[in-house]
Amino acid sequence: MPGGGGGAALRRAPPPVLPGLRPPPPPSRARDRAMTDEAVRALLQRFYALQGERVEAYRLLEEGHRAYLSSAPRYDFPRYRQLVHELTLAFSRVSREVLQLQGRLRDQHGRPELAQHLARLQEREQEKLQLTAQLQLARQRVQDEPGVDAHQQEVRELKHKLIKTIEAISEILQDLKYDSEEAE
């Protein structure tokens, strides 16, 4: 095939368009964006469900600690230890799943601002859990040694820190809500 004209025979002709029928439109950015927005909404719904699980775990932890303190002076430590173990597993599972959601928001859906809110929230939730454990130990010390003012002061300080941490969590949740609605 002199002149190189043989390559033209290998090119495909466009598909015939039948009268009255149009070829399907190419995927639109609007449709892709709507699908992404729907996926982001689903991830955020899952996140809020996980936050609800955390709230319930904290409620159970507080309730269990009250029962533990009421079992004084012969504390029912084995029962309380089992509860703490189960709730630790629950907190760990929730945290792992939130980290997965964070990664998906950032890497798959191009929403680093939402992922950053989840990262900040995880830090504050870890702080809240540590403060909760410290507060429970301090409350036991107050109960075991009621006349020690330093223990009562420690409880007050830990309660204050816990309140500040809970306020920070609420603020992050508000920022997350605002930024997720802004994109819709």
Are there runs of 5+ residues with pLDDT below 50, and where?
Answer: none
Q: How is the quaternary structure best described?
A: single chain
Give the number of helices.
4
* Cα gyration radius (Å): 28 Å
Q: How would you sum up the major sheet?
A: none
Helix content bin: over 70%
Quantity of strands, as a count: 0
Strand content: under 5%
Structural class: mainly alpha
- What is the approximate shape? elongated
Mean model confidence by pLDDT = 88
Distance between the termini: 58 Å
Order of helices and strands: HHHH
Concise synopsis of the structure shown:
By secondary structure, the protein is mainly alpha-helical. The protein has four helices and no strands. The protein has helices at 29-70, 77-108, 112-144, 149-182.
Question: What descriptors fit this protein?
Answer:
184 residues
What does this structure look like?
- The chain is mostly helical and 184 residues long.
- It is built from four helices and no strands.
- It has helices spanning 29-70, 77-108, 112-144, 149-182.
- α1 (29-70) packs antiparallel against α2 (77-108) and α3 packs antiparallel against α4 (149-182).
- The longest helix has 42 residues, at 29-70.
- The model has no long low-confidence stretch (mean pLDDT 88).
SSE topology sketch:
Blueprint: H1 29-70, H2 77-108, H3 112-144, H4 149-182
Helix pairs in contact: 1-2, 2-3, 3-4
